[in-house]
TrEMBL record:
Methyl-accepting transducer domain mapped to chain residues: 238-382
PANTHER family on file: LYSOZYME-LIKE PROTEIN-RELATED, METHYL-ACCEPTING CHEMOTAXIS PROTEIN MCPB
Region of interest (Disordered), residue spans: 337-362
Domain of life: Bacteria
Signal peptide limits: none
Name of the protein this chain belongs to: Methyl-accepting chemotaxis protein
Keywords on record: Transducer
InterPro entries, alphabetized: MCPsignal_dom (IPR004089)
Protein backbone atom coordinates (compact mmCIF):
# COMPACT_ATOMS: atom_id res chain seq x y z
CA UNK A 1 0.00 0.00 0.00
CA UNK A 2 1.00 3.62 -0.55
CA UNK A 3 0.71 6.43 1.99
CA UNK A 4 -1.33 9.41 0.88
CA UNK A 5 1.55 11.61 2.04
CA UNK A 6 3.85 10.08 -0.60
CA UNK A 7 1.64 10.91 -3.61
CA UNK A 8 3.48 14.05 -4.71
CA UNK A 9 6.81 12.26 -4.71
CA UNK A 10 5.18 9.34 -6.51
CA UNK A 11 3.83 11.67 -9.21
CA UNK A 12 7.26 13.16 -9.82
CA UNK A 13 8.81 9.71 -10.04
CA UNK A 14 6.11 8.54 -12.48
CA UNK A 15 6.56 11.60 -14.68
CA UNK A 16 10.32 10.92 -14.81
CA UNK A 17 10.02 7.20 -15.48
CA UNK A 18 7.10 7.17 -17.95
CA UNK A 19 9.21 7.52 -21.08
CA UNK A 20 11.86 5.10 -19.86
CA UNK A 21 9.60 2.05 -19.66
CA UNK A 22 10.02 -0.26 -22.72
CA UNK A 23 6.72 -0.45 -24.56
CA UNK A 24 5.28 2.51 -22.65
CA UNK A 25 3.10 2.87 -19.56
CA UNK A 26 0.23 4.94 -18.16
CA UNK A 27 -0.03 5.91 -14.48
CA UNK A 28 -3.23 6.99 -12.74
CA UNK A 29 -4.26 8.14 -9.26
CA UNK A 30 -7.82 7.38 -8.22
CA UNK A 31 -9.61 9.12 -5.36
CA UNK A 32 -12.61 7.12 -4.32
CA UNK A 33 -14.14 6.12 -7.65
CA UNK A 34 -12.76 8.94 -9.81
CA UNK A 35 -9.51 9.27 -11.78
CA UNK A 36 -7.92 12.57 -10.68
CA UNK A 37 -4.39 12.38 -12.17
CA UNK A 38 -2.94 10.63 -15.27
CA UNK A 39 0.55 10.34 -16.80
CA UNK A 40 1.16 8.63 -20.18
CA UNK A 41 4.38 7.62 -21.90
CA UNK A 42 4.76 9.54 -25.15
CA UNK A 43 4.99 6.28 -27.09
CA UNK A 44 1.72 4.89 -25.75
CA UNK A 45 -1.28 5.80 -27.87
CA UNK A 46 -4.24 4.26 -26.06
CA UNK A 47 -7.07 5.75 -24.00
CA UNK A 48 -6.96 3.67 -20.82
CA UNK A 49 -7.12 6.31 -18.10
CA UNK A 50 -8.31 9.90 -18.25
CA UNK A 51 -8.98 12.58 -15.63
CA UNK A 52 -12.58 12.54 -14.44
CA UNK A 53 -13.07 8.92 -15.41
CA UNK A 54 -15.57 7.11 -13.18
CA UNK A 55 -14.59 3.54 -12.33
CA UNK A 56 -17.07 0.73 -12.26
CA UNK A 57 -17.86 -0.98 -9.02
CA UNK A 58 -16.39 -4.28 -10.25
CA UNK A 59 -13.18 -2.75 -11.62
CA UNK A 60 -9.84 -4.02 -10.41
CA UNK A 61 -9.07 -0.63 -8.83
CA UNK A 62 -12.30 -0.54 -6.78
CA UNK A 63 -11.61 -4.12 -5.66
CA UNK A 64 -8.06 -3.19 -4.65
CA UNK A 65 -9.41 -0.31 -2.53
CA UNK A 66 -12.05 -2.50 -0.90
CA UNK A 67 -9.67 -5.38 -0.20
CA UNK A 68 -6.74 -3.09 0.72
CA UNK A 69 -4.30 -5.14 -1.32
CA UNK A 70 -2.46 -4.90 -4.60
CA UNK A 71 -4.33 -6.59 -7.47
CA UNK A 72 -3.30 -7.41 -11.03
CA UNK A 73 -5.53 -7.92 -14.04
CA UNK A 74 -4.87 -8.97 -17.66
CA UNK A 75 -6.95 -6.99 -20.14
CA UNK A 76 -7.64 -8.63 -23.53
CA UNK A 77 -6.98 -6.88 -26.83
CA UNK A 78 -10.69 -6.42 -27.48
CA UNK A 79 -11.03 -3.76 -24.76
CA UNK A 80 -8.34 -1.21 -25.71
CA UNK A 81 -6.98 -2.61 -28.96
CA UNK A 82 -3.90 -4.05 -27.28
CA UNK A 83 -3.25 -6.48 -24.46
CA UNK A 84 -2.63 -4.78 -21.13
CA UNK A 85 -1.55 -5.63 -17.62
CA UNK A 86 -3.11 -3.35 -14.97
CA UNK A 87 -1.77 -3.16 -11.43
CA UNK A 88 -3.68 -1.28 -8.74
CA UNK A 89 -2.08 -0.42 -5.36
CA UNK A 90 -4.30 0.92 -2.52
CA UNK A 91 -3.61 4.44 -1.13
CA UNK A 92 -4.22 4.79 2.61
CA UNK A 93 -4.58 7.86 4.79
CA UNK A 94 -3.05 8.50 8.25
CA UNK A 95 -5.68 6.26 9.85
CA UNK A 96 -4.88 3.36 7.52
CA UNK A 97 -8.13 3.70 5.59
CA UNK A 98 -7.96 2.98 1.85
CA UNK A 99 -9.17 6.14 0.14
CA UNK A 100 -7.98 5.49 -3.40
CA UNK A 101 -5.44 3.66 -5.52
CA UNK A 102 -2.33 4.14 -7.63
CA UNK A 103 -2.78 2.23 -10.89
CA UNK A 104 -0.38 1.34 -13.70
CA UNK A 105 -1.32 0.00 -17.10
CA UNK A 106 1.29 -1.18 -19.59
CA UNK A 107 1.12 -3.21 -22.78
CA UNK A 108 1.64 -6.90 -22.30
CA UNK A 109 4.31 -7.55 -24.92
CA UNK A 110 5.47 -10.86 -26.25
CA UNK A 111 9.16 -11.36 -25.30
CA UNK A 112 10.15 -11.03 -28.98
CA UNK A 113 8.24 -7.75 -29.26
CA UNK A 114 9.73 -6.48 -26.01
CA UNK A 115 13.28 -7.23 -27.16
CA UNK A 116 12.79 -6.19 -30.82
CA UNK A 117 14.38 -2.75 -30.47
CA UNK A 118 17.49 -4.32 -28.98
CA UNK A 119 18.07 -7.32 -31.21
CA UNK A 120 16.64 -6.15 -34.56
CA UNK A 121 19.39 -3.56 -35.35
CA UNK A 122 22.05 -6.16 -34.61
CA UNK A 123 20.32 -8.89 -36.61
CA UNK A 124 19.87 -6.56 -39.60
CA UNK A 125 23.64 -6.37 -40.02
CA UNK A 126 24.16 -10.13 -40.11
CA UNK A 127 22.75 -10.80 -43.61
CA UNK A 128 25.19 -10.24 -46.52
CA UNK A 129 22.40 -9.23 -48.93
CA UNK A 130 20.45 -7.32 -46.31
CA UNK A 131 17.23 -8.11 -44.46
CA UNK A 132 13.92 -6.53 -43.46
CA UNK A 133 12.41 -7.46 -40.10
CA UNK A 134 8.87 -6.70 -39.00
CA UNK A 135 6.48 -7.38 -36.13
CA UNK A 136 2.72 -7.45 -36.47
CA UNK A 137 -0.18 -7.78 -34.12
CA UNK A 138 -3.31 -9.46 -35.46
CA UNK A 139 -3.95 -6.84 -38.13
CA UNK A 140 -1.16 -4.26 -38.53
CA UNK A 141 2.59 -3.71 -38.48
CA UNK A 142 3.81 -2.61 -35.07
CA UNK A 143 7.60 -2.55 -35.53
CA UNK A 144 9.95 -2.65 -38.54
CA UNK A 145 13.71 -2.78 -39.00
CA UNK A 146 15.47 -2.41 -42.35
CA UNK A 147 19.17 -2.83 -43.19
CA UNK A 148 21.53 -0.63 -45.18
CA UNK A 149 21.38 -2.95 -48.18
CA UNK A 150 17.67 -3.74 -48.19
CA UNK A 151 14.48 -1.92 -47.28
CA UNK A 152 10.75 -2.22 -48.03
CA UNK A 153 9.44 1.35 -47.92
CA UNK A 154 5.86 0.18 -48.54
CA UNK A 155 5.73 -1.47 -45.10
CA UNK A 156 5.20 1.15 -42.37
CA UNK A 157 4.41 0.97 -38.67
CA UNK A 158 0.66 1.33 -38.10
CA UNK A 159 -0.33 0.15 -41.59
CA UNK A 160 -2.61 -2.84 -41.85
CA UNK A 161 -1.03 -5.76 -43.67
CA UNK A 162 -2.76 -6.97 -46.82
CA UNK A 163 -4.78 -10.15 -46.88
CA UNK A 164 -2.18 -11.98 -48.97
CA UNK A 165 0.70 -11.05 -46.64
CA UNK A 166 2.14 -14.20 -45.06
CA UNK A 167 1.39 -13.05 -41.49
CA UNK A 168 -2.33 -13.55 -42.09
CA UNK A 169 -1.80 -17.24 -42.87
CA UNK A 170 0.52 -17.65 -39.86
CA UNK A 171 -2.09 -16.09 -37.54
CA UNK A 172 -4.78 -18.46 -38.89
CA UNK A 173 -2.71 -21.63 -38.60
CA UNK A 174 -0.46 -20.77 -35.67
CA UNK A 175 2.44 -22.30 -37.58
CA UNK A 176 5.65 -21.01 -39.13
CA UNK A 177 5.33 -20.34 -42.86
CA UNK A 178 7.75 -19.62 -45.69
CA UNK A 179 6.98 -17.91 -48.98
CA UNK A 180 8.90 -17.08 -52.16
CA UNK A 181 7.77 -13.88 -53.90
CA UNK A 182 8.76 -12.64 -57.34
CA UNK A 183 9.78 -9.07 -58.15
CA UNK A 184 6.18 -7.93 -58.72
CA UNK A 185 5.50 -7.58 -54.98
CA UNK A 186 8.49 -5.60 -53.65
CA UNK A 187 10.54 -4.80 -56.76
CA UNK A 188 12.95 -7.73 -56.37
CA UNK A 189 12.47 -11.43 -55.58
CA UNK A 190 12.29 -12.07 -51.82
CA UNK A 191 11.82 -14.86 -49.31
CA UNK A 192 9.50 -14.22 -46.37
CA UNK A 193 9.73 -16.45 -43.31
CA UNK A 194 7.09 -15.65 -40.69
CA UNK A 195 6.81 -16.99 -37.13
CA UNK A 196 3.76 -16.89 -34.84
CA UNK A 197 4.04 -15.05 -31.50
CA UNK A 198 2.18 -17.09 -28.88
CA UNK A 199 0.77 -15.69 -25.67
CA UNK A 200 2.45 -17.64 -22.89
CA UNK A 201 -0.70 -17.56 -20.75
CA UNK A 202 -3.45 -18.34 -23.23
CA UNK A 203 -1.46 -20.03 -26.02
CA UNK A 204 -3.25 -17.77 -28.49
CA UNK A 205 -1.45 -16.22 -31.45
CA UNK A 206 -1.00 -12.52 -30.68
CA UNK A 207 1.16 -11.49 -33.61
CA UNK A 208 3.94 -12.50 -35.99
CA UNK A 209 7.64 -11.93 -36.49
CA UNK A 210 8.76 -11.91 -40.14
CA UNK A 211 12.21 -12.07 -41.72
CA UNK A 212 12.20 -10.90 -45.34
CA UNK A 213 15.41 -11.42 -47.32
CA UNK A 214 16.22 -10.46 -50.92
CA UNK A 215 16.60 -13.34 -53.34
CA UNK A 216 17.96 -11.44 -56.35
CA UNK A 217 21.41 -13.07 -56.27
CA UNK A 218 19.94 -16.53 -55.71
CA UNK A 219 17.41 -16.07 -58.55
CA UNK A 220 20.12 -14.81 -60.90
CA UNK A 221 22.32 -17.72 -59.87
CA UNK A 222 19.49 -20.15 -60.51
CA UNK A 223 18.82 -18.61 -63.95
CA UNK A 224 22.51 -18.76 -64.80
CA UNK A 225 22.64 -22.36 -63.63
CA UNK A 226 19.60 -23.20 -65.75
CA UNK A 227 21.13 -21.54 -68.81
CA UNK A 228 24.43 -23.29 -68.14
CA UNK A 229 22.68 -26.65 -67.87
CA UNK A 230 20.77 -25.99 -71.10
CA UNK A 231 23.92 -24.95 -72.98
CA UNK A 232 25.91 -27.87 -71.61
CA UNK A 233 23.15 -30.24 -72.71
CA UNK A 234 23.39 -28.83 -76.24
CA UNK A 235 27.18 -29.10 -76.23
CA UNK A 236 26.96 -32.62 -74.86
CA UNK A 237 24.64 -33.63 -77.72
CA UNK A 238 27.03 -32.09 -80.26
CA UNK A 239 29.97 -33.89 -78.64
CA UNK A 240 28.08 -37.18 -78.77
CA UNK A 241 27.44 -36.66 -82.50
CA UNK A 242 31.11 -35.77 -82.98
CA UNK A 243 32.10 -38.88 -81.08
CA UNK A 244 29.89 -41.00 -83.34
CA UNK A 245 31.44 -39.33 -86.43
CA UNK A 246 34.95 -39.85 -85.05
CA UNK A 247 34.16 -43.49 -84.45
CA UNK A 248 32.89 -43.85 -88.04
CA UNK A 249 35.96 -42.05 -89.40
CA UNK A 250 38.16 -44.37 -87.39
CA UNK A 251 36.33 -47.38 -88.85
CA UNK A 252 36.64 -45.97 -92.40
CA UNK A 253 40.36 -45.28 -91.90
CA UNK A 254 40.87 -48.85 -90.75
CA UNK A 255 39.10 -50.17 -93.84
CA UNK A 256 41.04 -47.78 -96.11
CA UNK A 257 44.33 -48.86 -94.57
CA UNK A 258 43.36 -52.47 -95.12
CA UNK A 259 42.50 -51.79 -98.81
CA UNK A 260 45.80 -49.95 -99.35
CA UNK A 261 47.71 -52.90 -97.93
CA UNK A 262 45.87 -55.16 -100.40
CA UNK A 263 46.83 -52.86 -103.32
CA UNK A 264 50.47 -52.94 -102.18
CA UNK A 265 50.30 -56.73 -102.18
CA UNK A 266 48.77 -56.72 -105.69
CA UNK A 267 51.59 -54.44 -106.93
CA UNK A 268 54.10 -56.90 -105.59
CA UNK A 269 52.26 -59.71 -107.42
CA UNK A 270 52.29 -57.63 -110.64
CA UNK A 271 56.06 -57.24 -110.28
CA UNK A 272 56.33 -60.98 -109.91
CA UNK A 273 54.26 -61.47 -113.10
CA UNK A 274 56.44 -58.87 -114.88
CA UNK A 275 59.55 -60.81 -113.91
CA UNK A 276 57.91 -63.94 -115.22
CA UNK A 277 57.08 -62.17 -118.55
CA UNK A 278 60.67 -60.98 -118.83
CA UNK A 279 61.87 -64.53 -118.30
CA UNK A 280 59.48 -65.83 -120.94
CA UNK A 281 60.66 -63.08 -123.32
CA UNK A 282 64.28 -64.11 -122.91
CA UNK A 283 63.44 -67.74 -123.54
CA UNK A 284 61.24 -66.80 -126.52
CA UNK A 285 64.03 -64.75 -128.03
CA UNK A 286 66.39 -67.65 -127.58
CA UNK A 287 63.89 -69.95 -129.26
CA UNK A 288 63.50 -67.45 -132.14
CA UNK A 289 67.31 -67.28 -132.54
CA UNK A 290 67.57 -71.07 -132.63
CA UNK A 291 64.71 -71.18 -135.14
CA UNK A 292 66.51 -68.68 -137.37
CA UNK A 293 69.67 -70.79 -137.25
CA UNK A 294 67.74 -73.91 -138.21
CA UNK A 295 65.94 -72.01 -141.00
CA UNK A 296 69.33 -70.93 -142.41
CA UNK A 297 70.51 -74.50 -142.45
CA UNK A 298 67.37 -75.61 -144.29
CA UNK A 299 68.00 -73.10 -147.05
CA UNK A 300 65.19 -72.21 -149.36
CA UNK A 301 62.90 -74.74 -147.71
CA UNK A 302 63.15 -73.11 -144.33
CA UNK A 303 62.72 -69.53 -145.51
CA UNK A 304 59.11 -69.32 -144.27
CA UNK A 305 60.13 -70.72 -140.93
CA UNK A 306 62.84 -68.07 -140.79
CA UNK A 307 60.24 -65.31 -141.21
CA UNK A 308 58.27 -66.73 -138.30
CA UNK A 309 61.40 -66.96 -136.19
CA UNK A 310 62.23 -63.37 -136.98
CA UNK A 311 58.77 -62.24 -135.89
CA UNK A 312 59.12 -64.26 -132.68
CA UNK A 313 62.34 -62.38 -131.91
CA UNK A 314 60.63 -59.06 -132.57
CA UNK A 315 57.74 -59.95 -130.24
CA UNK A 316 60.25 -61.09 -127.67
CA UNK A 317 62.11 -57.78 -127.94
CA UNK A 318 58.85 -55.83 -127.70
CA UNK A 319 57.71 -57.84 -124.67
CA UNK A 320 61.06 -57.36 -123.00
CA UNK A 321 61.07 -53.61 -123.71
CA UNK A 322 57.54 -53.36 -122.23
CA UNK A 323 58.55 -55.10 -119.00
CA UNK A 324 60.60 -52.12 -117.63
CA UNK A 325 57.71 -49.79 -118.40
CA UNK A 326 55.28 -52.09 -116.55
CA UNK A 327 57.76 -52.40 -113.71
CA UNK A 328 58.21 -48.65 -113.57
CA UNK A 329 54.45 -48.14 -113.50
CA UNK A 330 53.94 -50.75 -110.81
CA UNK A 331 56.84 -49.28 -108.80
CA UNK A 332 55.28 -45.82 -109.12
CA UNK A 333 51.92 -47.23 -108.05
CA UNK A 334 53.57 -48.94 -105.12
CA UNK A 335 55.36 -45.74 -104.07
CA UNK A 336 52.16 -43.71 -104.25
CA UNK A 337 50.23 -46.39 -102.42
CA UNK A 338 52.92 -46.58 -99.73
CA UNK A 339 52.74 -42.79 -99.33
CA UNK A 340 48.96 -43.07 -99.06
CA UNK A 341 49.47 -45.88 -96.58
CA UNK A 342 51.65 -43.68 -94.38
CA UNK A 343 49.09 -40.89 -94.56
CA UNK A 344 46.35 -43.37 -93.81
CA UNK A 345 48.27 -44.60 -90.80
CA UNK A 346 48.65 -40.96 -89.67
CA UNK A 347 44.93 -40.36 -90.19
CA UNK A 348 44.18 -43.58 -88.36
CA UNK A 349 46.33 -42.45 -85.43
CA UNK A 350 44.72 -39.00 -85.49
CA UNK A 351 41.23 -40.47 -85.58
CA UNK A 352 42.14 -42.65 -82.60
CA UNK A 353 43.40 -39.61 -80.74
CA UNK A 354 40.27 -37.69 -81.76
CA UNK A 355 38.07 -40.49 -80.49
CA UNK A 356 40.00 -40.58 -77.20
CA UNK A 357 39.86 -36.77 -76.86
CA UNK A 358 36.14 -36.82 -77.59
CA UNK A 359 35.63 -39.36 -74.83
CA UNK A 360 37.58 -37.15 -72.43
CA UNK A 361 35.53 -34.09 -73.46
CA UNK A 362 32.33 -36.08 -72.98
CA UNK A 363 33.47 -37.09 -69.50
CA UNK A 364 34.33 -33.46 -68.70
CA UNK A 365 30.93 -32.31 -69.98
CA UNK A 366 29.23 -34.87 -67.74
CA UNK A 367 31.25 -33.59 -64.78
CA UNK A 368 30.34 -29.97 -65.59
CA UNK A 369 26.69 -31.01 -65.94
CA UNK A 370 26.84 -32.56 -62.46
CA UNK A 371 28.42 -29.37 -61.11
CA UNK A 372 25.72 -27.31 -62.81
CA UNK A 373 23.01 -29.43 -61.20
CA UNK A 374 24.73 -28.98 -57.83
CA UNK A 375 24.92 -25.23 -58.48
CA UNK A 376 21.21 -25.17 -59.22
CA UNK A 377 20.53 -27.07 -56.00
CA UNK A 378 22.60 -24.55 -54.02
CA UNK A 379 20.73 -21.68 -55.67
CA UNK A 380 17.39 -23.18 -54.59
CA UNK A 381 18.63 -23.32 -50.98
CA UNK A 382 19.81 -19.71 -50.89
Amino acid sequence: MISINALEDLKKLAETQADLIPGGIVYGIINGDTMEWVQYSKSLNINVFYVGQKLREDSITRNAIREKKTLTQKIPRSVYGTRLDIISIPIVDETGKATGAFSMAFPRLHPVAGAFDRFAPILSQMFPEGVFLCLTDLEKFVKVQSSKKFDIPSIKVGDKFESDFLSGEVIKTGKEKEQELDALKFGIPVRNVSFPLIDEDTNDVVGTFSIITPREVAVNLKDMSGNLTENITGISSAIEELAASASQIHTNEQELNSDINKIIKLSEEINEVTSFIESISDETKMLGLNAAIEAARAGQAGSGFGVVANEIRKLSDQAKSTVPKIKKLTDDIKDRVEESSEKSKGSLSSSQEQAAATEEITASIEEITTMSERLNEIARKL
